[in-house]
Amino acid sequence: MTELRIAVLGVGMMGAFHVDALTKRIRGAKVTVISDYFPEKAKEVADAIGARVVDDPIEAINDAEVDAVLIASPGAVHDVQVNACLDAGKPVLCEKPLTTDIASSRVIVEKEKSLGKELIQVGFMRRFDPEYVALHQLIVSGGLGNPLMVHCTHRNPAVPDHFNSEFMIRDSVVHEVDVTRFLLGEEIVSVQVIKGVATSAAPAGTNDPMLVVFETESGRIVTDEIYVRTGVAYEVRTEVVGEQGSATIGLDQNLQVKRTDGSWGGQITPGFVERFGQAYDIELQRWVDAAKQGTIDGPGAWDGYAAVAVCEAGVKAVRSGRKEYVQLAGIALPVEEEPIPDIRAPDLIGDRP
Q: Which parts of the sequence belong to the Gfo/Idh/MocA-like oxidoreductase C-terminal domain (predicted)?
């Protein structure tokens, strides 16, 4: 196969970005079919690259001139579309989430397993970012000794009002979920969300920023500051603390200028495309190369399922204010301990000065 013929489902900001990359920067790929809920948007993108518009996404998946599928449509329709790709036996790169609930994601994992081949790749692009790759290799090689803790920072300059506390978990923190699993090589078993004072830029009822705390199977602790209305820039940093050292990525190592008046500074990436554009291109190139062989090269269905399960626990933690455990198949949950009864005399029970 000299060119992988691709159908792109959903050409909003992310889908249109992928179409542009596949057309201009990725070798061996050709977008042949575009499908979107808004026909006029689909026609605009398709006309610009000489592709056809197929309104029905399932028809687009099954089109005779489509070898593989890239799904960038809203998460609510991923379940149906990913299943259609499996039924057609076509490799698919699905932007997160794999689906919007644990049960449907688990069904997809089992369905793919029954086919005896991996067809589903999930779009966690940070795994392809050179800095994250270098940090992962440093951990695997033992360069930091035993990794003990991970500290993440995820800040956006601005987001739409529908980014409430729960949406922040599902759409933003999900990246740190996958980063944790990628760097530490183990599952997350619990999530806790600590809410503080909200920025005045947040809509009523939205906790922004929040501190999200993960605990992994081995007891490692991961913190994630999620703040999506900073009004500043796009900042993503990760620090791993080990027994023999620590390492940090995402330190905005851009041009630093010092001036005669004593001022100094540089620029921070304004958005996710500037920060992770290279990672997206590497991800797409490796997916295209693998899809030509009928397989994937990156995070798969289980990774998508695990992320959905952790985010579901995170949403529960936002609502309950308690630590919530991840309902992931094959992972034993800790036994809840009964509270220790207070056996002090009644007159000794109460507030202390």
A: 137-327
